[in-house]
Amino acid sequence: MSIMQALQNNLDAKAKQYKDPALMHIFLMNNIHYIVKSVRRSEAKDLLGDDWIQRHRRIVQQNANQYRRVAWSKVLQCLSGQGLTSSGGSGQVGSEGGNSSGASRTAVKERFRSFNMQFEEIYQKQCGWSVPDSELRESLRLAVAEILLPAYRSFQKRFGPLIENSKAPGKYVKHTPEQLELFLGNLFEGKQERP
Questions:
Q1: For the chain, what is the domain count?
Q2: pTM of the entire predicted model
Q3: Residue 148 sits in which domain range?
Q4: What are the residue boundaries of the Exocyst complex subunit Exo70 C-terminal domain, all occurrences included (predicted)?
């Protein structure tokens, strides 16, 4: 137990060296997952017990959840309708903006532009990150997709029509939800990619 605690302390100290909090959580998730997997396949399982394994599996999950929150919260904020609509309906509304609940075309364009910029930045960075365990990598991709894709679909359905007939709509709505899903499939491969 004391050896495992020393190892955990060492990991925590190394994790604090990462400037990017999302990468810190990926580091901890990867390493603790590896330790748990190694313990389960060895005699150490009998020494440490099932409670230790379950507790550390929860720590892996907590780091995955923290990664998701830290890494994707700004992107998800871009997809929020908050601040785009006026409660009294007195905001600027384009002629085709009937289903946009009084949102300003300029504000919607800015949200799409901000989403594209932030998504592309995260995508490019996180494609270079590595999650060696294929099951863990897939579950992390799925967890990101489960929060990002419904938010994007909803935002695009609600506010996309406001800019569809504007000048150069492809400049703002760059990706379909299906394309985003394909991009998410490239995360954590340890290779640099561009969307």
A1: 2
A2: 0.84
A3: 100-194
A4: 1-184
**Exposure pattern of 139-164 as b/e (b: 16+ CB <10 Å)?**
ebbebbbebbeebbeebbebbbbbbe
Q: Calculate the CA dihedral of residues 135, 139, 141, 146 and round it to 10 degrees.
A: 160
pLDDT digits (tens, 9 = 90+) for 165-195: 777 777 888 999 999 999 999 999 988 666 6
Residue 60's Cβ-count burial label (10 Å; 0-12, 13-18, 19+) is: buried
Q: Examine the domain organization and report whether 105 and 33 are in the same domain.
A: no
Distance between CA atoms of 42 and 1, rounded to whole angstroms? 15
Residue-level length of the chain: 195
The answer to whether 20 and 128 have CB atoms below 8 angstroms apart is no
19-46 pLDDT per residue, tens: 999 999 999 999 999 999 999 999 999 9
Residue 10: phi and psi, rounded to 5, are -65, -45
State whether 72 and 105 are in the same domain. no
Asked if the structure places residue 91 within a domain, the reply is no
Token pair belonging to 48: 């440490």
Question: For 41-90, how does the pLDDT look when each residue is reduced to its tens digit (9 = 90+)?
Answer: 999 999 999 999 999 999 999 999 999 999 999 999 999 988 776 543 43
